[in-house]
Specification:
The structure is a single chain. About 80% of the residues lie in helices and about 0% in strands. Helix 1 packs parallel to helix 9, helix 1 runs parallel beside helix 13 and helix 16 packs across helix 17. The longest helix is centred in the last third of the chain and has 34 residues. It is globular.
Length: about 400
């Protein structure tokens, strides 16, 4: 896709977002009639994720040549993830302590959200680590459980690189598969404006009338302000990292806008992955960086989710008039960071891992009921932040590869 097509497509996607907001806002529940357009777009993107991810990671590893370079690549990637997620959690804790959004919020009549409790009934920090390895890769693919697939793809890529010439035919197969998948992504992207319109209109339509939506926002208004202001600050910090660490011009941000807007519409970093990789390719990011960093980032690099979970846990504590000291907030810091890594890149998965954070620090799980009315709305902003964090990570690794390896 040439630069002119990319620019026009971005404009049409933004028009689709605005049109979806207007239709969902003014038509109310009737807007759900166009939700199938968004579902079709989301399903089409999701259909591309598994073959694209596997082929991208394997070719990314085999293209390194010297397997020892993978250690350096992994080191800088994981370091970036840990640092930016830690920054995000810290911002969330600072903002919630300054704004105090939970003070005065009524908790009367809250019931435990059974469907979330069932999903998280046996989840803990250990389960997050166990989720990295799946006994059945086919089942993991069917459930869009990406981390085991990524680890297998990395290991298989290393194996292909280690056996020399015998591994080259398989490496070329996955390279051809990856190129074919990228072409499919380019074709699907032309449907993005209509799909984004359907997703946004459908979600706002499902929220009811404009008045009903504003009432939900008003009920926990300071919580919404806290999360959005924290995400904005972190988003700006990521831009600064892009400018001064990755040394990428502001045009890189513009080039990634299609992925960011799509992430806002789909609320899924996993479904957005094909577009994120395509935008990084068009921005001339090193193939080793985009094929390794972006798939891994869509699974474990959840800056927006980590910030949200830390702020939400403190919000619930304040609503129940529970005072948390620095030690307890440090526990929230650690558990929110680990839980965000374990959050799947699917809509509202953060609510399930939120239960882990609450249980670790001993906060009432039923407090999640305060967040449900606006979680779907905030989910879009934190997913956009997640995807932008992945994109900046690819740029940072690109800079490292150009400076230290090539």
């Amino acid at each position: 896709m040439n630069s002119r097509h990319s620019f026009y497509l971005l404009i049409f996607i933004i028009i689709g977002v605005i049109a979806g907001l207007l239709v969902g806002w003014y038509w109310g529940a009737a807007a759900t009639g166009v939700a199938w357009l968004g579902k079709l777009f989301l399903n089409t993107l999701s259909m591309l994720v598994i073959p694209l991810l596997v082929s991208a990671v394997i070719t990314g590893v085999t293209s390194l040549g010297d397997v020892r370079q993978l250690g350096r690549l992994s080191g800088i990637t994981i370091s970036y993830y840990l640092i930016t997620v830690a920054i995000a959690v810290l911002i969330g804790l600072i903002m919630v302590n300054i704004i105090q959004p939970g003070v005065g919020v009524s908790t009367v009549g809250l019931a435990q959200p059974d469907e979330l409790l069932i999903a998280a009934q046996e989840k803990g920090i250990g389960d997050i680590l166990l989720s990295m390895v799946a006994p059945n890769l086919i089942a993991a693919a069917a459930e869009t459980n990406l981390l085991p697939l990524i680890l297998w793809s990395v290991a298989f890529g290393i194996a292909l690189a280690s056996i020399g010439d015998k591994g080259k035919p398989a490496a070329r197969f996955f390279e051809s598969l990856n190129e074919g998948m990228m072409l499919l992504v380019s074709w699907v992207m032309y449907f993005a404006p209509i799909g984004v319109f359907g997703l946004i209109a459908g979600m706002f339509g499902a929220a009811g009338s404009a008045q009903a939506f504003m009432e939900k926002i008003a009920a926990v208004g300071l919580h919404v302000v806290t999360v959005l202001s924290g995400l904005t600050i972190h988003f700006i910090i990521l831009i600064l990292i892009m400018l001064f660490v990755a040394r990428q011009p502001i045009s890189y941000f513009v080039g990634m806008l299609r992925a960011i807007v799509t992430a806002f519409a789909t609320a899924s970093s996993t479904a957005t992955l094909p577009i994120t990789i395509q935008c990084a390719k068009e921005s001339n990011i090193d193939e080793r960086a985009r094929r390794f960093v972006l798939p891994l980032g869509s699974t474990v690099n959840m800056d927006g989710t980590a910030l949200y979970e830390a702020a939400a846990a403190m919000f619930i504590a304040q609503a129940y008039n529970l005072q948390l000291d620095l030690g307890q907030q440090a526990i929230i810091f650690i558990s929110a960071t680990l839980a965000a890594i374990g959050a799947a890149g699917i809509p509202q998965a953060g609510l399930v891992t939120m239960i882990i954070v609450l249980q670790v620090v001993g906060l009432p799980v039923e407090g999640i009921g305060l967040l449900l009315a606006v979680d779907w709305f905030l989910d879009r902003f934190r997913t956009a932040t997640n995807v932008w964090g992945d994109a900046v990570g690819a740029a940072v690794v690109h800079r490292y590869l150009q400076k230290h390896i090539d």
